[in-house]
Amino acid sequence: MDTGGNFLPIIAALPFVGALIPGVMIRAGRTACATYTFMASALAFILLMLSAPAVFRGEVLQFQLEWLPMLGLNVNFMLDGLGLLFAGLILGIGMLIILYARFYLSREDPMGQFYTYLLLFQGAMVGIVLSDNILLLLVFWELTSLSSFLLIGYWKHLPEGRQGARMALTVTGLGGLAMIAGMLILGSIVGSYDLSVILQHKELIQASPYYLPALILILAGCFTKSAQFPFHFWLPHAMAAPTPVSAYLHSATMVKAGLFLMARMWPVLSGTPEWFYIVATTGLITMVLGAVIALFKDDLKALLAFSTVSHLGLITMLLGFGTEAAAIVAVFHILNHATFKAALFMSAGIVDHETHTRDIKRLGGLRHLMPVTFVIVTIAALSMAGIPPLNGFLSKEMMLEEASHTAWLSNPWILPALATLGALFSVAYSFRLVAHVFLGPKRDDYPAKPHDPAFGMWASPAFLVVLVVLIGLMPNLIAGPLVDITAAAVTGGHPHAHISHWHGLVPAFWMSVAAILGGALFLSLHGALERGWNAAPRPEAKVIFDAITRASTRASHWLTDTLHNGSITRYGAIFAAAITAAGLFAWFESPMSAPTREMLPINAIMAIGWVLLVISTGCIIAFHRNRILSLVLLGVIGLAVSMAFVYFSAPDLALTQISVEVVTIILLLLALNFLPGRTPVESGMPRRLRDAVIAGAAGLAVGGLTYAILLRDFAAESISAYHLANSYKGGGGKNVVNVILVDFRGFDTFGEIIVLGIAALVIYALTKSVLRGPGGRWLLNWGPDDDEAGDRHPLMMVVVTRVIMPIALMVGAYIFLRGHNAPGGGFIAGLIVAIALLMQYMASGFAWAEERQRYHYHAMIAAGVMTAAVTGMGSWLAGRQFLTSSYGYIHIPPIEEFEWATAMAFDTGVFITVVGAVMLALHSLSSMSRRTGEQVNIHPMDVDPGRGAAPADGKEA
Amino acid sequence: MTHWIIAPIVLPAVMAAIIVMSMRHHVLLQRIFSIAGLTAVIAIAAGLAVQASTGVIEVYDLGNWPAPFGIVLVLDRLSAMMVLLTAVLALVVTVYAAGTDWDRRGNHFHALMQFQVMGIMGAFLTGDVFNLFVFFEVLLIASYGLMIHAGGTRRLRAGLQYVVFNLLGSTLFLFALGTIYATTGTLNMADLAVRVSEIPQSDIALIRVGAVLLLTVFAIKAALLPLHFWLPETYAEAPAPVTALFAIMTKVGAYAILRVFTLIFGPDLPDIADVVEPLLLGAALITITIGMIGVLGSNRLGRLAAFAVIGSMGTVFIGMSSFTPETTTATLYYILHSTLSTALLFLTVDMVRERRMGSSDGYASLPAFRQQGLIAALFFAAAIAMAGMPPLSGFVGKLLILKSVWPLPGAGLIWAVILVTSLIAIVGFAQGGSAVFWKTKAPEESAEPADAPAEAAPEPAQGLAFTAAFSLLAGIILLTVFAGPVTSYLSATTGQLYQRQGYVDAVLTGPERVGGDAGYGAKGHGDADDGHGETDTHATEEGH
Lengths: 957, 544
Prior knowledge:
The complex is a heterodimer of chains A (957) and B (544). Chain A is built from 40 helices and 6 strands.
């Protein structure tokens, strides 16, 4: 049945879709959950098998879908021999693991979560091996790291699980990131990220100057994933995961992803000395090192983990040889290792499950208690040791054969010798596994009484062991075709594997014999060897890794906390320094032209104003700790600035400045009431000196900039000429400033009144939340000062403000009305009216005054904004843009001709908002006073009821 | 003539006014109006995006004054996209705030939210630098109000820093605008683009200072080192729904830089680009480094998330600093991604805070909390996205940026920095996540953790909160799945950005301008001698 490649995306997607099932199905029971999870894998496996015949015919199935053309990231899948082998392993062993895990997990373990993670992992893994796009491959690659993180940390209550998960994620994440770089470089060399394209450009890639960096970066990904030295240390710690995970991810599949990628890239990356020396050497070291360490591990899973490391090294080395024959062996061993090692892991899990320990020192003599497990382990371990006729023997023999005629740095002895040594240790630890766990006398101190588990639990390893035997007996029949097509996919040629048990008395035979005999010898000497091993100093990878992560975490803490210590002074200093530096950098990078304007002569008035400004600014710096004094000085500065506006014929600005000044000073005075009178000294002299230098530099820079600007003309004609020319003609007003505010740039004003309104709302909300919090409690206990005036609402002030009130209102109205043609306008008028009201409130108390006004301040602000907005939207009715003004002239007989303008309505909005905002701010401040216990007066003028006389009398007085 | 372009600004403003005026004591009404208003804004924004996707640059002359003399709003692909993004984010955040009762914990939440949206929309749409200043003020003051919403000592202290630092920035904005206006005599962006490109050599120094000052102003908003100091405390202490909305605030800074430094001070002006690009790149590399180190160096989820934002802004600016079409496209994609995933991260952090004992998001081992699995899954997704791991958009964005800078000088350094900091972030997220979600201890009092119905007090509608969070996740997933179409829209956006003559023409002379039915030529105010003529839009029936 030829399906083309259309099944491929479904095969890759099925596990991901299936990952949704267990979380739901767990509610139907554990068996149902496992069954449906199994079905998802099984379905994918069946689809794969349906695609297999085409692959065996030598076809490469493909599926292509564009995802992100700009990046070259496409959803391209392909299935060739290599993909088929791996996908088959992943899905096939996956099904066995799902079955096994059903019996392995206990009732307390959240099984739904487990299967979800497992299927996520399975999908990612299938994705890797089916990808025909290296960026897509990267996506799946990192997904395996993530899902493995979740699986290792599955028992989240165990610290080893959490640490192991983080370590695995860190190491494989590191490799993954390196690989991102490597893959991007590779793609940029070829100009395509599609694997099938890349695989055809061997010469181009190997001739590129970026070949070596790309190679190193990609290999970093492969080595970390496949636990090659010096990244091997994460794998044993990943064994904190439940055993099904160890069996699946950390022996059969995920750790082989690195091997897969090396095999996949073999046609284009291999064959160079760089490849040989990096890959083969790393593999060799890993193989020997892993085997040696494995012999001395007492934890069953640790032993198997290091044995896995060793076997991964073996395969890496074979791939590193770069010859076709070695590649065939590599492929064959991948298959063999997956079968016997997964079986061993599952058996180790059974032992752990039944005896409640994995410590070899506490085991032994289990052969009678657990005969089935014993048989399974023995066959698998013998295969691992390379004992004929099992499948492990076949591939190991072939490996030794390849090693025996490969020279390393033109030395023909090193490689064969070390390979034999690795094999020797491999034999030793395999024998030890059987001898020290199952053989020997029966003990009576097992933590739990061991017996063989239920069939469901040993079914999976048993099935694998049957495969081990069958492949061992009939390699060419069962594994031959698969190895052939896989090797063809790896090498790009048409190799044919001749797998046989007997090659004659070749070097490999003697090496094998030496390994088996030596291994048996080493086992018999195990006790002595172990004492020596334990006595010898050796670096502990976890300790080093932990030290590095802890040190870098601590360094990060330190750096982050030191840099962000919360001091606003410091932040301000950095702000000023950085911006001054950036400005100066920009300024001095280019030549500066001479000024184009004459400086105006300095006359006496200006000089006095200047001196006044300088002195009052200087005084603020000197006396800023006395808050009331600095407020007064602030007022002086404000007035001086207003005078400057007057001097430069800007009456609008002067009016605005003065009224803003008055309002802010009054509000600040009220706020000051709640603050301590003096600012405490918090910084030493050096800090202040530093800040002075920075502030001085920034100030001088700003001054210099202003100076430079003022002495130069516009480089291009300013747009203000248009405003001058069109203010009356187009805007209907003679006061250009006002027309700019309400018409030319009315939208700015619209925004600014909203700012003002929001500010008032924020002050209100802020006061409310302060009063709710500890600040409110503090205010409750905050007694008024003793030197408070006896008459809170003095007669004179009340009378004067009453008299002024109508006048002030009239001035406000006048200023408002004349605004369009003469200095004035809604903003200034609003402030003036607000001041008039403020004075009433100050004179007679807030509550007294508030009772006499009918509008809510919130509503006033909103109404002002609405008025402005509605005025703006009104122009839509006329088919014009927002805020398009119109004006005209009305003649009401007794009076003179009278101008109206829509801008006036807008200005009214401004006016209302300003009044509302100021009053709401005042209201908020007064609500704080009232919280302090200030009493509400009934009459407009009275003396403090709290002083002297009884309160009741005081109020009546 | 269409007025839709101004609707995203005016509608929230009016909505806020209505909420303050008539329903400031009715949270339910506020929610209804707020959510309804934002839904309408989304609809309008979507319409605008469709309109902009045709490539026509639409210009709206406020007050019917011709550019450059009045204020213009300009809708192009970029602004339309940002407007839509803001609208969606604002709705999600508002729904979340309503679902968790955050909006009840202080005053004026919804009004401030609407004003905030108005400010952000204005910043994206305006074509006038001074108007941009005004909208920066709007969004600053509104965001301050939102930031200190519900009060609390630490929050108020952080809020003070936020507002002080940003007011310094506003002052600087005025310096920058003063310098630029004093040199060029105009404030309209398109007009500035023309005038800056014709600036005589004698005034280069001044305009350059203006450009750099403007850059620093925007860099403050975008939290670029060393001007980011306001961010960590603010983001860690602000109410999380507000922080989630703030995800777009840093992007306002990024947008402004992108707009101003492609249009006005474009990469084709070597005098300015030579100063700006190295400054930006250097700052970006430091930003991503310090940000990601901060992720590792945090001991609270809120702080971790805040530094993740800084790191992600560093990534944005690495992409932005070289101003080539490829890098800009990649950056735009990353901006979309970063906005959604930052918001998701903060909502998740808030869910943790709300459920953990003592409202703590610290790494200490605390008892497991309600819906821990679901929240852990959300956090995992957000962390993956922020750290740039597959399969979410962070990975795609990172690859796009890496690939786009490859041909540029210094690519090796940039790659190294991005990849190494990614690793640091992965480790940081893994530590934080495993400490909070995995390392739980049994609750001390009740023996059976499952036996919690006694505490099932009437909770706010958490369904709404989860809906909000999951819709952000859905957004991230959609952004990933439809990366192809999205990037092709973004390529077109970039094309439009670098075709600045198109923008200039549209604003100053182009036929696309929304210029009244009389057509552009007839309606200039200065053209007609008689200011009150029949055709004059500002005149009325009665001549003078």
